[in-house]
Design brief:
This is FHF complex subunit HOOK-interacting protein C-terminal domain-containing protein. This protein is mainly alpha-helical. The protein contains 29 helices and 2 strands.
Length: 727
C-alpha cells in the first residue's frame, strides 16, 4: 500500500487541533470584556474538541507512539499556558475548565504523560493551587483532578519522586509568582531524569526552590500533594482525595517513611476530623445520628442537594462521618507503620482531646448527643489499627482482673459503664446500645476488658469437689419442648453446616449419672427447660398468641452464634474451661463493673421501662452467644454451684421470679391483663384504656421472651458442640 496513507488522516487532525488552540488564544487577544463567564464563550467547546482530537489520535496509532497533536501540546507548553489562565480564573470559571481538561487528559490518554517535564511541572503547580480556597466552587473538580494524579502515581510509583519536595526550601511567604519564577537548575540530565532527581538530590526536583544552605538535607522530604500549600492555607488539598489513600499504600519505602515521619499528614487528618466534629450542633436527635444514610467518603458527599438537609446538622454530620470513613479507609490501606502512627494521632488529637470531655460532661443533652455520635463512630470504624486505639481509649489497656477497688481507675470506662444505669432512660438505652455494638466488633480486648478477665480463674464456682448434678425431678416438666424433633433444627444444623471452632464447649455436655446418653441430649433438654420453666405458668402469655414461639429465637441464635464463631475463631480462646486444679478458686470473685451494672438492671426488670428492658436483655443475650467456655458456664449453665455471695445471670433471674410470685397475688385479673398488654405490644389490640401495673406487666413479657431466647441460645450452642465433637 501507499506509505503515505497512514499519515494522511493525521494532518487534518493536527490542523484542527492547532485551529482550536489558536481560537482560545485569540479570545484573550481580542476580547475586552473579561467579566463574562467562560460558559458564555466558545472556550469550553474548543477545549473539548482538543481532548477529542488527542484521544482519537492516540487511538489511531501504535501504543506508546506520540502523535503530532500531542507533540504540539508538549512542545508549545499548552498545559503551562492553561495553568496560568486557570490560576487567574480568567474569564470567570476558567479554573474549573482547566482542572477538567487536565483530569480528562490524564484519564483518557493511555501513554504515560507525567514523565514529560511540560506535563508534570504544570500538573504540580495545579496540585498546589487546589485547596487554596476552602469549599471552593471548584471543589469537585479539584478532588477529581487530585484523584487522577494519584491514580497515575499508583500505576508508576517511581513517579512519586517528582512530587517529593524539600520542605526546608519552601519560601516562608507566599509569593504569587514563585512557582513561575523558580527554575530547576540545569543538571545536564535529560528532562525526565532531571525532574525525578531522586530524593537523594532534592535540589534537582521540580519543586526545588531557592539555593538555601540546607539544599542537600534529604531528611525533610515532603509530599506537596499532602501539604500542597504554604502555611496560611494549610487547610488542605486532601479534600477527600483518594490519592492520599493510594499514596499511603505505595510500595516505595521512601514514600512510606516520608509520609509517617515528615508530612503533616496526621495533623491534617485529625485537625479536619476535629473541625468537622466541632461544627456539629451541641444537641442532635440520637435517631437522626443513627439513621443518617451510611456514608462513604467520596465525591457524591460534596454535591448534596440543599434540600437534603432534613434535620439540623445533617450536612455537617455527613461531612464528619464521611471524613471519619476516609481516615478509617486510609489507615486500613496504609503501610502498617503508617497506619499505627495515624491511628495513634486520631486517638490523641480527636478521641482524647475532643470526645472525652464531651462524654464526661454533666449536661444530659450533651451526654446523649456525644454517646450517640460515639456509637455511630464505633459502628463505622473497621480498620484494625484505628479500632485498637479506639478500644484502648474507651476501655483502657489493663489486662488483670478488676476488683471493686479498681473499677474507677479508668475514668472514661467507669463513666460509660455507669451511664448504662443512668437516671435518664434515654442515656441508659443509648449507652447500652453502644456496648452492644462494641461487643460485636472483631477485637479481642473488648471482651477481655469488659467480661472475660473477671472469669479467668472460674472463682465464681464453689470451692469444693464438683458433685455430679442432680437430674431434674421426675423427668421433664409439662411444657418441655422436644427441640430435637424441630424440623428447622434437624435440617439447619446438618453436619455440613457445622460451626467451625465450636469445640470450646468440651467434647460433649456433662451427663448426670443416670443418663448416660452419649450425645448429651438429656443434658441439653434439662438446661433448655430450666430456662423455659423459670417463669411460672400464670405469668406466661406467649402460648396464647400466634407466632410468638421459638422458631425465630432458634433461627436468630443459630445465625448470630455462627457470626460470633467467625469473629472469635482467630483468638486464642481455649477449647475447654481451665482445669479446676489450675484455677485460683480462693481469689474473691468480682463479676466486674460491666456485668455488675447489667445484673443490677436485670434485677429491676419488673420496675423499669420496657425499652430499657429490651436493651438490657439484648446486651446480655449477645454476651451469652459468645463461644468462650467460662462465659458459657457462668451465664448459661443453671447447674453450677456458685461460690458464696456470687450471682450469675440465672441466679439473678431466679430472684426476679421469686419477687414476681409475691407480686402476682396482689394484682387482680393478672393473666388476662398480661395477655392484653402483649397483644397491644404486638399491635394486635388498639391502645385503649390505661392498664394499671403497666411497667410490671411489660417487664414480665420481656422476662418470658428473654428466657425463651436464653433457652434457644443454650440449645444452639450445645448442639454445635455435640456436632463438632462427634466423629
Amino acid at each position: 500500500g501507499d506509505p503515505d496513507v497512514s499519515l494522511a488522516p493525521s494532518l487534518p487532525l493536527q490542523e484542527d487541533f492547532v485551529y482550536h488552540w489558536k481560537a482560545i488564544t485569540h479570545y484573550y487577544i481580542e476580547t475586552s470584556d473579561d467579566k463574562a463567564p467562560v460558559t458564555d464563550t466558545n472556550i469550553p467547546s474548543h477545549l473539548e474538541q482538543m481532548l477529542d482530537i488527542l484521544t482519537q489520535e492516540e487511538g489511531e496509532r501504535d501504543s506508546g507512539e506520540t502523535g503530532p497533536c500531542m507533540e504540539y501540546l508538549l512542545h508549545h507548553k499548552i498545559l503551562e499556558t492553561l495553568y496560568t489562565l486557570g490560576k487567574a480564573d480568567c474569564p470567570p470559571g476558567m479554573k474549573q475548565q482547566v482542572l477538567t481538561f487536565y483530569t480528562k487528559l490524564l484519564a483518557h490518554i493511555r501513554q504515560p504523560l507525567l514523565p514529560h517535564i511540560n506535563v508534570h511541572r504544570p500538573v504540580q503547580k495545579l496540585v498546589r493551587l487546589c485547596g487554596d480556597v476552602l469549599a471552593a466552587p471548584t471543589e469537585n473538580e479539584e478532588i477529581q483532578f487530585l484523584c487522577i494524579v494519584c491514580a497515575k502515581l499508583k500505576q508508576d510509583p517511581y513517579l512519586v519522586n517528582f512530587f517529593l519536595e524539600n520542605k526546608s526550601k519552601r519560601p516562608e511567604t507566599k509569593s504569587p509568582e514563585r512557582t513561575e519564577r523558580v527554575k530547576a537548575p540545569d543538571t545536564g540530565q535529560s528532562p525526565a531524569e532531571e525532574q525525578a532527581g531522586c530524593p537523594k538530590e532534592p535540589q534537582a526536583t521540580a519543586a526545588a526552590s531557592t539555593s538555601s544552605p540546607t539544599s542537600n538535607n534529604n531528611n525533610s522530604n515532603n509530599y506537596n500533594l499532602v501539604t500542597s500549600l504554604p502555611q496560611p492555607h494549610k487547610e488542605i488539598v486532601v479534600k477527600a482525595c483518594e490519592g492520599l489513600m493510594l499514596l499511603v499504600s505505595l510500595p516505595e519505602p521512601s514514600a512510606a517513611k516520608c509520609l509517617t515521619e515528615n508530612t503533616e499528614l496526621c495533623e491534617l487528618l485529625t485537625d479536619r476530623l476535629v473541625s468537622f466534629y466541632k461544627a456539629l450542633p451541641q444537641s442532635m436527635d440520637p435517631l437522626d445520628i443513627e439513621t443518617v444514610e451510611s456514608v462513604n467518603w467520596g465525591l457524591d458527599v460534596y454535591n448534596l442537594k440543599e434540600d437534603a438537609a432534613i434535620f439540623t446538622g445533617k450536612r455537617p454530620l455527613i461531612s464528619f462521618l464521611s471524613w471519619l470513613d476516609y481516615c478509617d479507609q486510609l489507615i486500613k490501606e496504609a503501610h502498617k507503620s503508617a497506619a499505627t502512627v495515624m491511628a495513634k494521632a486520631v486517638r490523641e488529637r480527636f478521641f482524647v482531646s475532643v470526645m472525652e470531655p464531651q462524654l464526661m460532661q454533666t449536661s444530659e443533652v450533651g451526654i446523649l448527643t456525644s454517646t450517640a455520635l460515639l456509637n455511630r463512630i464505633i459502628r463505622q470504624v473497621t480498620s484494625e489499627a484505628l479500632m485498637q486505639e479506639m478500644v484502648y481509649f474507651l476501655l483502657g489497656e489493663e489486662r488483670e482482673p478488676e476488683t471493686p477497688a479498681t473499677v474507677a481507675q479508668n475514668p472514661l470506662r467507669h463513666r460509660l459503664i455507669e451511664h448504662c444505669d443512668h437516671l435518664s432512660d434515654e442515656i441508659s438505652i443509648m449507652t447500652l446500645r453502644l456496648f452492644e455494638q462494641l461487643i460485636q466488633k472483631p477485637n479481642q480486648h473488648i471482651l477481655h476488658s469488659l467480661v472475660l478477665r473477671s472469669l479467668e480463674e472460674r472463682n465464681y464456682l464453689e470451692n469444693k469437689p464438683q458433685e455430679e448434678r442432680e437430674p431434674l425431678e421426675n423427668g421433664q416438666p409439662h411444657d418441655a419442648v422436644d427441640l430435637e424433633e424441630d424440623p428447622l433444627f434437624v435440617d439447619d444444623l446438618s453436619p455440613d453446616s457445622r460451626l467451625s471452632g465450636s469445640d470450646w464447649l468440651g467434647s460433649s455436655p456433662r451427663q448426670s449419672p443416670d443418663h448416660t446418653k452419649s450425645d448429651g441430649k438429656t443434658e441439653v433438654h434439662k438446661i433448655v427447660n430450666s430456662f423455659l420453666c423459670l417463669v411460672p405458668d400464670e405469668a406466661k402469655s406467649s402460648y396464647q398468641v400466634e407466632g410468638t414461639g421459638y422458631d425465630t429465637y432458634l433461627r436468630d441464635a443459630h445465625r448470630q452464634f455462627r457470626d460470633f464463631c467467625g469473629v472469635c475463631q482467630r483468638w486464642d480462646w481455649r477449647g475447654h474451661p481451665k482445669p479446676f486444679e489450675k484455677c485460683n478458686l480462693d481469689a474473691p470473685f468480682f463479676e466486674g463493673h460491666f456485668l455488675k451494672v447489667l445484673f443490677d438492671r436485670m434485677g429491676r426488670i419488673l420496675d423499669q421501662p420496657y425499652d430499657v428492658n429490651l436493651q438490657v436483655t439484648a446486651v446480655l443475650s449477645k454476651l451469652c452467644l459468645l463461644p468462650h467456655p467460662h462465659l458459657h458456664e457462668y451465664q448459661l449453665d443453671p447447674y453450677i454451684s456458685l461460690a458464696p455471695g456470687c450471682r450469675s445471670l440465672f441466679s439473678v433471674i431466679v430472684r426476679v421470679v421469686g419477687d414476681l410470685m409475691l407480686r402476682i397475688h396482689h394484682i387482680p385479673d393478672f393473666t388476662p391483663k398480661l395477655l392484653l398488654v402483649r397483644k397491644r405490644l404486638l399491635g394486635l389490640e388498639p391502645e385503649g384504656i390505661t392498664i394499671d401495673h403497666m411497667t410490671l406487666l411489660e417487664g414480665v413479657i420481656v422476662l418470658e421472651e428473654f428466657c425463651k431466647e436464653l433457652a434457644a441460645i443454650a440449645f444452639v450452642k450445645y448442639h454445635a458442640a455435640a456436632a463438632s465433637s462427634s466423629p
